[in-house]
Amino acid sequence: MQLTPAMERFILHWGEMGARWGVNRSVAQTHALLYLSPKPLNAEEIADTLVLARSNVSTSLRELQSFGLIKITHVEVGDRRDYFEAIKDVQEMFNLVVEGRRRREIDPTLTLLRDLSIEADADSVTDPEVKKRITDMLEFLEVMIHWYDQLRRLPNSTLMQLVKLGDTVIRLLPSFNK
User: Which of 26, 56, 74, 78 is the most buried (most CB within 10 A)?
Assistant: First the structure.
């Protein structure tokens, strides 16, 4: 596959951003290529285009599949190779990433904070200020997760309408106008 300068810049940037978000650069670049590609690509095409080792591409593809960001497809009868394509809907992609991060990062933190809150309430040695900070963190995360869960139940079109209201909604809040 021949990359245009715009495609190259996007793929390089996506790789850099992925590294900042804790995702391997090759994984992020593979995702970017598949997202931009107008057709499904096989592993060899990906490796050749990105100048990556085939083993690196295979590892990247497995990781992207585990995130749900790409899927396997077949393009021709008789061609036994797997071809890969990325989820193209940006909102669906965003939701998958957020859900994955929630499972890996937020949910375990909530579990820990709930356990710590119970433990701290039961002991007499934990400083009351420490107990309060744990409780404050727990309550904040629970409120934010509840809000997130409500938003996730909205149809995508309704959610986008809500997000686009942006400043209008904020201006309606009494604390904003002070």
Answer: 26
Query: Which CATH number is 5-86 given?
Result: 1.10.10.10
The structure's pTM equals 0.82
Residue 178 binned pLDDT confidence (cut-offs 50, 70, 90): low
> Residue 34's pLDDT band (boundaries 50, 70, 90)?
very high
Asked if 25 contacts 18 with a C-beta cutoff of 8 angstroms, the reply is yes
Closest Cα to residue 97, out of 157, 40, 17?
Answer: 17
d(CA 54, CA 70): 17
Q: Enumerate the domain spans of the chain.
A: 5-86, 90-177
Contact 91, 160 (CB under 8 A): yes
Greater confidence (175 vs 122) lies with 122
User: Which residue matches tokens 């957020």?
Assistant: 98
CA dist list (Å): 114 to 103, 122, 130, 136: 16, 13, 14, 11
Q: Identify the DSSP state of 89.
A: -
Question: Which helix or strand (DSSP H or E) is residue 16 part of?
Answer: helix 5-20
CA distances from 68 to 31, 96, 113, 138, 169 (A): 11, 7, 29, 29, 33
